[in-house]
Amino acid sequence: MPSFRTLQALMVRYLRNMEFIPKTPRFREIIRDHLTRQEFMKHIGCELSVIEPGHVEAIIDLARIHQQQIGLVHGGVTATIADVAAGFAGFTLVGEDQHTVTAEIKISYFKKAVGQRLRAVGRVVKAGRSMHFCEADVFVENNGTEELVARATTTMAIIRITE
User: Fold this and answer.
1) Fewest CB within 10 A of the end CB: N or C in the chain?
2) What is the pLDDT of residues 80-131, one digit of tens each?
3) Cα–Cα dist 149/127, whole Å
4) For the chain, first and last CA: distance in Å?
5) Range of the domain at 51
6) Edge-to-edge strand order for the sheet containing 145-160?
7) How far is CA 38 from its chain centroid?
8) What is the pLDDT of residue 163?
9) How far apart are CA 39 and CA 95, in angstroms?
10) What's 49's domain CATH number?
11) What is the rounded distance in angstroms from the CA atom of residue 51 to the CA atom of residue 44?
């Protein structure tokens, strides 16, 4: 049986070969502009490290603010980074007059998260006209080793904001 790392690498290679065509070539620029107004992401130190069509990675360098009472990464932080990565993965595929918002999220926690950094890998599983179905895997890095700690499945509604 192949190792988890081998399966993960195969899955990433498969997903990266799926062809997602952004509706605007400016999707990276638009996302970076939106990030300047994401106050909660700034507050928790969440940044996007990879922005590709249908694929986004987010990172948080962990500090005491991210811990719950016994020193583990708070489950809400894990859920947040998963939501951010999945949501922005979906956002890469919408038009300039559209946005994505979380309509549904389900997260499974596989093990406790203790370490120096969280990394979420968000991907679009199925892109639609009114909804995108996305997933995010969350990893914790502890002393140079990265482990999968959670997986989220999300439904991202595509909306238009009229001002």
Assistant:
1) C
2) 999 999 999 999 999 999 999 999 999 999 999 999 999 999 999 999 999 9
3) 26
4) 55
5) 4-160
6) 46-52, 55-61, 117-127, 131-142, 145-160, 98-109
7) 15
8) 60
9) 23
10) 3.10.129.10
11) 19
User: What's the 3-state SS for 52-95?
Assistant: ECCEEEEEEECCHHHECCCCCECHHHHHHHHHHHHHHHHHCCCC
Count the domains in the chain. 1
Q: CB–CB of 92/27 below 8 Å? A: yes
**Helix-helix angle 27-35:75-91, to 10 degrees:** 150
pTM of the prediction?
A: 0.87
Distance from C-alpha of 123 to C-alpha of 13, rounded to nearest angstrom: 12
Residues across the chain: 163
Q: Which residue has the tokens 């997903």?
A: 15
